[in-house]
Amino acid sequence: MNMLKRLSIALVLAVAVSGMVFAGGAAEEGAESRGRASIAYVEWAREAAHSEFAAEVLNRAGYDMTVNSVSNAAMWAAVASGDVDFHLAAWLPVTHANEWGEYGNRVEDLGEHYVGASLGLVVPSYLDDINSIQDLVDNADMFDNEIVGIDPGAGMMQATENAIADDVYGMGVFELLEGSDATMMAALQDAIRNERPIVVTGWAPHIKFARFDLKLLDDPQEVFGAAETINTIVRGDLEQDKPTLYEFLNTMDWMEVDDLIGEVMVLIDEGVRSEEAARQVVDANLDRINSVLTAGLSMQ
Question: The whole model's pTM is what?
Answer without folding.
Answer: 0.72
